[in-house]
TrEMBL record:
Function: Pseudouridine synthase that catalyzes pseudouridylation of mRNAs and tRNAs. Mediates pseudouridylation of mRNAs with the consensus sequence 5'-GUUCNANNC-3', harboring a stem-loop structure. Constitutes the major pseudouridine synthase acting on mRNAs. Also catalyzes pseudouridylation of some tRNAs, including synthesis of pseudouridine(55) from uracil-55, in the psi GC loop of a subset of tRNAs. Promotes the processing of pri-let-7 microRNAs (pri-miRNAs) independently of its RNA pseudouridylate synthase activity.
GO function terms (MF aspect): pre-miRNA binding; tRNA pseudouridine(55) synthase activity
Protein name per its UniProtKB record: Pseudouridylate synthase TRUB1
Family: Belongs to the pseudouridine synthase TruB family.
Catalytic activity line of the entry: uridine(55) in tRNA = pseudouridine(55) in tRNA; a uridine in tRNA = a pseudouridine in tRNA; a uridine in mRNA = a pseudouridine in mRNA
Keyword Acetylation: yes
Length: 349
């Protein structure tokens, strides 16, 4: 049922004569409206309690399927990007009155939703989401730079290059100065070569390196590859901790950067905290929806605001909303990862 029809069913019948005169409608027109409203009320009454709720859920399901575009959410520390996407999907389905078990049974309509650019489970920050035809826009929308705030810890190396891993080495850091770090950072600006972490979503023989490592398999490091650092600055130094602000291109690993900084300083280092503050044209402060705003209406409003961020060539290609049919729905989640090696499509139903 359309949204306008929902409003008729849920609105009380108005019979104030003065109001009728003020609206300058004819008696015949008002009579027709009264009959229609009375008939609608009779349908609701005959359907019994809960009908209005079902009508509302149907309208929400229709609106959910009509959503199309790109927006951003705030990912907390803990869940993986895929887990967060599933959490978002579950909240939207529940709001629309379509629990997951129902979606596995109905295949007539598809809700496409995906994220672009995997963020480590131990990291927090902005995660860009595509919904509807917006899933096809993610690669183009996110071809720009990313920005991170990282807190590194000197004197401690781990197998994952961050605080979640096992300590593999410890070295002194007491003679390292702020000037030493600032001098080292200049070596990591521009086009550089970087070896990706062993614990990553990169693959070997179709399996993620991180999964192989967790199973105790022997994994060889991927060869160094070219990456780009647009800017890097030291924000704070309070030994053993240092905070850096990094803007980089795709395929760049902050964990590898922090580890390499430690080695250049004749010590070692690992990431203590990591926050992504920018992804493409989206920023954490301006565009990321917190979890309490993961509703159909809030996302619809966010999609409208974020449409101004589309490049001109994408704006011209914006298509009509997805055709919707609340009677038969299914769900497809698509994850577009950071690099070409991770460019496989992950689908969950």
């Amino acid at each position: 049922m359309a949204a306008g029809e929902t409003a008729v069913l849920s609105s009380p019948l108005k019979t104030d004569v003065a109001h009728v005169c003020e609206t300058a409608e004819t008696g015949a027109a008002m009579a027709r409206k009264s009959v229609s409203a009375a008939a609608a009320a009779a349908i609701v009454a005959s359907a019994g309690p809960g009908c209005e709720s079902r009508v509302s859920k149907s309208a929400l399901a229709t609106k959910l399927l009509s959503l199309s575009g790109v927006f951003a959410v705030h990912k907390p520390r803990g869940p993986t990007s895929a887990e967060l996407l599933n959490r978002l999907k579950e909240k939207l389905l529940a709001e629309a009155g379509m629990p997951s078990s129902e979606w596995t049974k109905r295949k007539k309509q598809t809700l496409k939703i995906g994220h672009g650019g995997t963020l480590d489970s131990a990291a927090r920050g902005i995660l860009v989401i595509g919904i509807g035809r917006g899933t096809k826009m993610l690669s183009s929308m996110l071809s720009g730079s990313k920005r991170y705030i990282a807190i590194g810890e000197l004197g401690k190396a781990t197998d994952t290059l961050d605080s979640t891993g096992k300590v593999t080495d410890e070295k002194p850091y007491d003679k390292i100065t702020q000037e030493d770090i600032e001098g080292i950072l200049r070596k990591f600006t521009g086009n550089i070569m970087q070896i990706p972490p062993l614990y990553s979503a990169l693959k070997k023989d179709g399996q993620r390196l991180s999964a192989l490592m967790k199973r105790g398999k022997v994994v060889e490091a991927k060869p160094a590859r070219p990456v780009t650092v647009y800017s890097i600055s030291l924000e704070k130094f309070q030994p053993p901790f240092f905070t850096i602000d990094v803007e980089c291109g795709g395929g760049f690993y902050i964990r590898s950067l922090v580890s390499d900084i430690g080695k250049e300083l004749s010590s070692c280092a690992s990431v203590l905290e990591l926050t992504r503050t920018k992804q493409g044209p989206f920023t954490l402060e301006e565009h990321a929806l917190p979890e309490d705003k993961w509703t159909i209406d809030d996302i619809a409003q966010c999609l409208e605001r974020c449409s101004a961020l589309f490049p001109a060539e994408l704006a011209l290609k914006k298509s009509k909303p997805e055709e919707s049919n609340a009677q038969g729905l299914s769900c497809e989640c698509v994850a577009l990862n950071e690099t070409k090696e991770e460019g496989d499509v992950i689908k969950t139903v």
